[in-house]
Design goal:
Order of helices and strands: HHHH
Helix content: over 70%
Number of domains: 1
Number of strands: 0
Shape: elongated
Largest sheet: none
Number of helices: 4
Radius of gyration: 18 Å
Distance between the termini: 27 Å
Length: 77
């Protein structure tokens, strides 16, 4: 297991042992997670559109697939 995975498990264990967050705090955390996912999708899709043919071949997708994935809106998984 990698260090980050081990660290993540220990963080999860710690969080699970703590009392539940108030509802408003839970909503704020859920919103922050959603915005973070959207940001990551936007960035990675933008980068995907600019990969070279060799880079696309290395990751095993065609230019058409890269274009399709790269033009999806950030809110679509």
């Amino acid at each position: 297991m990698t260090t980050s995975a081990t660290s993540s498990l220990s963080n999860t264990s710690y969080l699970n042992s703590r009392p539940a967050l108030p509802v408003l705090a839970q909503a704020a955390v859920a919103f922050a997670v959603l915005v973070t996912k959207w940001s990551i999708r936007h960035k990675t899709r933008k980068e995907l559109r600019h990969l070279s043919a060799d880079q696309l071949k290395d990751i095993g997708i065609s230019r058409q697939e890269a274009h399709y994935q790269g033009t999806l809106p950030f809110w679509r998984p």
